[in-house]
Amino acid sequence: MVSSEYRFQKKTDKLGEEIKARHHQNEYRQYLQVKQAQAQLQFSDLALARSRAKFLRAEAIENLDTLLVDFEKKITQRGAKVHWAEQAQEAQHIIRNILHQQNNTQVIAHRAPILQEVDFEKAIQNQDIDLVYTDIHAQISRYLPENKQMNTQEVSVSSLKDIAEAIEQKDNQKIGVDAKEIFDYLQEKNLHQIKHQALGILGADFMVADTGSLCFSDNQTNIQTILGQASRHIVVVSLSQIVAKLEDLELLLSLKDGYQTGNIFSAQSFLLNAPLNQSEIQQYKNLDVIILDNGRSELYKDPMLRQALRCIHCQACAFTCPVVTQLPPNTKNFYPGVIGLVLESKTHINDNQLLTESTLCGACAEACPIEIPLHHMVRKLREEKQNNKSSLLAILNPFKAKNQFLQEIKKQYFSTSPKKETFYQQWIKQNTAK
Hints:
CATH architecture of the largest domain: 3-Layer(aba) Sandwich
CATH superfamily of the largest domain: NagB/RpiA/CoA transferase-like
Radius of gyration: 29 Å
Number of helices: 19
CATH topology of the largest domain: Rossmann fold
Helix content: 40-55%
Strand content: 5-15%
Number of strands: 10
Number of domains: 2
CATH class of the largest domain: Alpha Beta
Distance between the termini: 77 Å
Shape: globular
Largest sheet: 6 strands, parallel
């Protein structure tokens, strides 16, 4: 009886935390909608801006091969080294080799989706290396228990109270229920942990083909801390995140940050551009760029799924999807929303619930600033999965192996030719005659 009561209590506690987390999500979603509306006012014609961004991304994807070669040529001329990784495991191997060469004892990184896709933590396992995350979400996670984890973007007044209480309990530091005060305290404490000779690992948002530049959009992940504090840098970027010209970034980053956070890109974006002095040239010599495929070339082969490579990772599809908003916070994939389902469909990283639970309402496609027809892609992936199941059933069909036997039965009982006597019938005749 006690055990059943304990299980019931655990289930109700878990359900209560999920309800509380969804309440935080809904609070943030309402706040974000207001911020998004304000950010979109920077465009005199939002429809035209979206149409232009769609054209720029489509053109870049169609010329992917030449743009990637141009980018590699430009950035290697400055002293950087480019690595090509077909799979996530290959990227881990490259990171592990760089660590061995440099003998670093500390790695500083941020929780970029592409770094989670690569799962770079496996590359530093069992190597006596101190890993420090610079983003606010990771710092909050150190204080909160697993059942109270949250996305930094979804922090509300009630969750700020939980964070402040956790800091007071763990660090014996009295702190007010104020977002800026909490974030400043966490960042200052984090800076004291970083060593001078640390290795920085970052995920880039875009590569620029005509200049060989790398662009980082800093959304509470402290990109500037990694760029400034680390003595050597490893940058991981997917092969689809490339633009033809530097001037294309202004529109794409404006849309990305406007839809993702309701901010204007210039306040939180960084660009590794052409070196201007000797110190910056040395910085490029200490730069390794890993260009990751991990199933994207398979998407490129399909004219429909290829459009997913245009994504600028603004998460607009995740914020508007009626299914994603009802999923527990810890069940989201590396790339939230329907776009994550499509991008991960060729790597089989996770069994995404959206494949079966999506309503195909089209809210994601309508919200997407690049106008990617995501609901049509979900339908196509469902058809592919169903076709795979049908072919598998045909292979595993227990009657298929007995087709020859069934054909013989058919011949014996349905043939117009005179039927042969069975062994039993022959035995009856022989014994009756005797």
